Amino acid sequence: MKTVTGIAPVNIAVVKYWGKRDEDLILPINDSLSCTLSTDFMCAKTTIMASPTFPTHRFWLNGKESDFNNERLNNCLTEIRKRANPKCGDLLNWKLHICSENNFPTAAGLASSAAGYAALVSTLSALYNVEGDISAIARRGSGSACRSIYGGFVRWNKGAKPGGEDSIACQIASASHWPEMRVLILVVSDDQKKYSSTSGMKQSVLTSELLKHRAEKIVPGRVDEIIKAIKLKNFEAFAKITMQDSNQFHAICLDTYPPCFYMNDVSRMIIELVHAYNDYQGATKVAYTFDAGPNACLYLLQNDVDEVASLINDIFPSNTNPKKH
Ligand code: PMV
């Protein structure tokens, strides 16, 4: 019997991935860029036990048994096994019991699948002693999972090869490059989202002209600009691109037919509050970004965390304290 445990953190995109050019291989239509959070707060943990006595593969998510015949899970397993160290021998034939859990709401637009599949793939790679980049394998679980394989500021290159070998993540800068950077996660709702990101982006690819315009004309320049801002630690430039990209992503969701609404009234109040706060400060101190859900991620620098957190607590008093990352 062999048991391994691994953890992977959540990543929050500042230039969003939205739309696939290949549904099966999960190849995106645009590059994206994110920050990986510290594992101290929001992460997924996977434990895998392999045994010659297990009759079947089994899988538990957050303590509840789920179907192992999940296509994405099996794609990750198949790809990892292709790269397994030949010395694994019989281990490759043993059945697996996989337990995965998140320490935060699942499928509420808080990148749970990114952390979940990154934890799964890195734990499988430890089990089978896989070497080299595994981000392309994590991508087969959930596109954004490839970015959670690396820490700090991470770019996912859309790649050009039909098989997706070059659609991989790479680190732009480590977390220690910009240690003052912080994220506040405001959990507006921990309900599961109405439209999955998979179905939302599929519908956007089919119907949104704005999506094509963004992928071709906007994202390439935006990725270059935000990398420049990160390298120079230019928070104002970083924040402006982050907010513009979040807004454009949600504009695409509206431009999708039928539209998908991920933000709610509280999300929009947070956007107004951030702009009012930045105006009052006479400088861009805080940036918001929203994924496929109503919850806000605020990027800001360490010095401004206490003031912004107390402002949020004053304005939304019924909420529990935002978690600092
Ligand atoms: O990896 P998925 O299929 O959960 O898609 C994630 C899409 C966004 O979170 C909205 C954007 C992103 O780049 O993470």
TrEMBL record:
Pfam families: MDD_C (PF18376), MVD-like_N (PF22700). It catalyses: (R)-5-diphosphomevalonate + ATP = isopentenyl diphosphate + ADP + phosphate + CO2. GO terms for biological process: isopentenyl diphosphate biosynthetic process, mevalonate pathway; sterol biosynthetic process. It comes from the Eukaryota. Coiled coil: none annotated. Keywords: ATP-binding, Lipid biosynthesis, Lipid metabolism, Lyase, Nucleotide-binding, Steroid biosynthesis, Steroid metabolism, Sterol biosynthesis, Sterol metabolism. Its EC number is 4.1.1.33. Residues 183-323 form the Mvd1 C-terminal domain. Gene3D superfamilies: 3.30.230.10, GHMP kinase, C-terminal domain. InterPro entries: GHMP_kinase_C_sf, Mev_decarb, Mev_diP_decarb, MVD-like_N, Mvd1_C, Ribosomal_Su5_D2-typ_SF, Ribsml_uS5_D2-typ_fold_subgr. Residues 8-169 form the Diphosphomevalonate decarboxylase-like N-terminal domain. One of its GO terms (molecular function) is ATP binding. GO terms for cellular component: cytosol. The keyword Nucleotide-binding applies. Catalyzes the ATP dependent decarboxylation of (R)-5-diphosphomevalonate to form isopentenyl diphosphate (IPP). Functions in the mevalonate (MVA) pathway leading to isopentenyl diphosphate (IPP), a key precursor for the biosynthesis of isoprenoids and sterol synthesis. Belongs to the diphosphomevalonate decarboxylase family. This is Diphosphomevalonate decarboxylase. It comes from Tribolium castaneum.
